[in-house]
Structure formats: C-alpha cells, structure tokens
Design a protein that fits this description.
2 domains, WalR-like, alpha/beta, Arc Repressor Mutant, subunit A, about 50% helix, 6 strands, about 15% strand, Tscrpt_reg_LuxR_C, Sig_transdc_resp-reg_receiver, about 200 residues, Rossmann fold, single chain
Length: about 200
C-alpha cells in the first residue's frame, strides 16, 4: 500500500483528492491537513510514504514543508499538486527535493500513476513545465526573496526588520539588491515580477 497524507487549504479540493485516491486499491489516504503547520505535525505523527501538498497554504507553504522534509532527512516523498504553472516554482520545488510536481488541471488518472512512480523511486514532473523551468534562472537568494515577499505584502522596512531580526538598513539593502537583480523600478514592480515568474 502507498500511504498518503494530503495537505490542501481548499476543503472541496482536499475532499475531491481524498475521494479520488481512495478509489485506488493500492493507495490509502491516512489523513489530510488544511494548512502547512498541521501538515508538518501530521507528517511526523502518521509517517506516510508520500505527502501530496499544494504550494500556497496558510502557515507553511508546500515548498517550505518539502524543505523541512529534506533537511530532516525524513523518508517521505513529496508531490506538489498546484495551479501554479510557473517554472520558478518548479525549480524551487526540485531544489527542495520534491519527487513530483503536477498541475491541478491535469487528467485525474495522472495523479495515482504519478504517486506509484514516485513511490517506486521515480520522479513525476509536468513535462511542459520541466522544459520551461530551465529557460530562466531565479536571480534571488533566500533572504532577498523573504524580504521582497513581505514588502510586497505591504510591510514597511522597519516591520520586516523586526520580523526577520534584521536592521532597517540591512532590509533596505536586500530590497535594493532584489530590485536591481530584477531590473525593476521599485519594490512593488519587483514583487509583481518575481511572483509572475514563480520566484516568490
């Protein structure tokens, strides 16, 4: 049996994925989580073979959970199922050690097949996205990405500094670096550009 944990913040999608996978004779859905923090706790409690997760969720994102699984060397495969057909997201997912990256608009039968492939040690990546992912590299480092994301959410440099334990000047430097690397006019344009590319 392939033991699966689902992490998805939309209840209807979560229910549909669970029902779909439970139709398979060799897949068992152990549980589901509506946000990243719950998913991380359930992951450690249930010890599934595969975590199927969305990217954008409250608390931890699917990518952050994948990074934790990778960092803690947990024997759990991570498969991301998302609406984000952005090469930047795929690159970051692969860097975080995910085994699968599938789009929500793919045919339903692809999911079960992909889980079997991943469980056997393979990789399941949307082919069109895989081609695009290597066309343009993400210029931002982790700190610039963090600061730019918070700035794009409307936080001031002082607020960001307090939250990340950085000085006001350091925050401004990170923002300035990010804006320069993206060739943007200001932080808002830089945020919009980076989101569009899937780098945030």
């Amino acid at each position: 049996m392939i033991r699966v944990l689902l992490a998805e913040d939309q209840a209807m999608v979560r229910g549909a994925l669970s029902a779909l996978l439970n139709l398979e004779s060799d897949i068992e859905v152990l549980g589901s989580a509506p946000d990243g923090e719950t998913a991380w706790r359930e992951l450690q409690r249930l010890k599934p073979d595969v975590l199927v997760t969305d990217i954008e969720m409250p608390g931890l994102t699917g990518l952050e959970i994948a990074q934790r699984v990778h960092r803690h060397e947990l024997p759990i495969k991570v498969v991301i199922v998302t609406t984000f057909a952005r090469p930047g997201f795929l690159r970051r997912a692969l860097d975080a050690g995910v085994s699968g990256y599938l789009l929500k608009d793919a045919p339903a039968e692809n999911l079960a097949e992909s889980l079997r492939l991943v469980h056997r040690g393979g990789r399941a990546i949307d082919p069109q996205l895989a081609l695009e992912a290597w066309s343009e590299a993400d210029p931002l480092n982790d700190r610039e990405r963090q600061v730019l994301r918070l700035a794009g959410e409307g936080q001031s440099a002082s607020d960001i500094g307090t939250q990340l334990n950085l000085s006001h000047g350091t925050v401004r430097n990170y923002l300035s670096e990010a804006i320069g690397k993206l060739g943007a006019a200001n932080r808002i344009e830089a945020y919009r550009l980076a989101r569009q590319k899937g780098w945030l």
